[in-house]
Amino acid sequence: MSQPATIHDIAKELNIAVATVSRALNDHPAVKDSTRKAVRQMAKKLNYHPNKIATSLRLGRSKIVGVIIPSAEINFFGSVIHGIEKVMSENGYNVLIYQSNELYEFEKRGVETFLRSQVEGVLASISKNTINLDHYAALKKRNVPLILFDRANDSLGVPSVVVDDYQGAFNATRHLIQQGCMCIAHIGGQQHVTIFNQRLRGYIDALNVHNIPVDDNLIVYGKVSIESGRECMNQLLSYTIDAVFAVEDFTALGAIQSIKAANKKIPGDIAIVGFANEAFGEYITLSLSTVNQQTVHMGEEAAKLFFETRNNKEWSKMPSPKLVLQPELICRQSSIRKKYK
Q1: Which residues contact 289 (CB under 8 A, 6 or more apart)?
Q2: Considering all CA atoms of the chain, what is the largest pairwise distance in Å, rounded to the nearest integer?
Q3: Shared-domain flag, residues 151 and 236
Q4: pLDDT tens for residues 34-46?
């Protein structure tokens, strides 16, 4: 296979300087029209295509951003990426995606890979197992824009886009109370992860507002997975409960499996609500009530924050914007015991 044509090949064919070819291709005013025309004709004849990455690097911009997500298997993150890519594409940017698999070491490696790839910025959702944030802090020190989405951490002092997890959890728990549930359990996630802590707080405050005692026995913590949901639900089945608010949909799915295995009816015996509006929720039997996090909108806003940050040379010294999106409660068969108002 022959090598792609270069500006050196064009220069050799026309017996002119490489610099002249470069200026002609970039419409430099110092180049004669006849020379410019000859260069373009030869470029077409040789099927020459400019190396956009090399050109971008010469101009000091790669027009590439890196995106770190915890898992590509979760529809939530795929939907956020859809929003990110939409805005990036409209602005002539490309996206590199790195999956951390919820592991700190993978996440750290992802940041290092992006820096070697000379990305202009990084958009990231922090892994559940990440406690040390030094790799993200290093981006800020190097003046590489960092935008966090969904799982953010205010201590980094960088722009972020999140959903109001507290309000989403409050609304979900209140919905269960409105359906007549009085003994509502919560399957939570790792509490060092801000979003999971906020969801716990929303659950507790909804109970308090409606004068329902908070029973610590009805709050169990898992690792946010189907298997963990099953295990946590098996613990809760030893208590008298009539509802469960699960920290996210995969956990809720595991809980549903355990409830069915115990020959209890949903929602008659135990109603359940998840969080995240994963794609499967609408199609399982019974369909899963959940909280929609406006994922595509989240991705779009995160991308817009990148451009705002990149264009502000003093971004690292200024207060970081935090955009909080409002959640939407989606009521389906798993929780509706009576007509919902």
Answers
A1: 172, 175, 271, 272, 273, 274, 329, 330, 331, 332, 333, 334, 335, 336
A2: 88
A3: no
A4: 999 999 999 988 8
Tell me the C-alpha distance between 170 and 209, whole Å.
10
| Side chain identity, residue 224 | V
CA–CA gap between residue 269 and residue 58 (Å, rounded): 66
Token pair of 1 as six digits:
């296979």
Q: Which amino acid is at 320?
A: S
Instruction: Please state, in angstroms and rounded to a whole number, the distance separating the CA atoms of residues 195 and 291.
Output: 13
Confidence band (pLDDT; 50, 70, 90) for 341? very low
Residues in the chain: 341
Question: Domain span at residue 112?
Answer: 64-162+295-325
Give per-residue burial for 27-61: e unless 16+ CB within 10 Å, then b.
Answer: eeeebeeebbebbeebbeeeebeeeeeeebeeeee
Q: How many domains does the chain have?
A: 3
> Does pTM top 0.85 for this prediction?
no
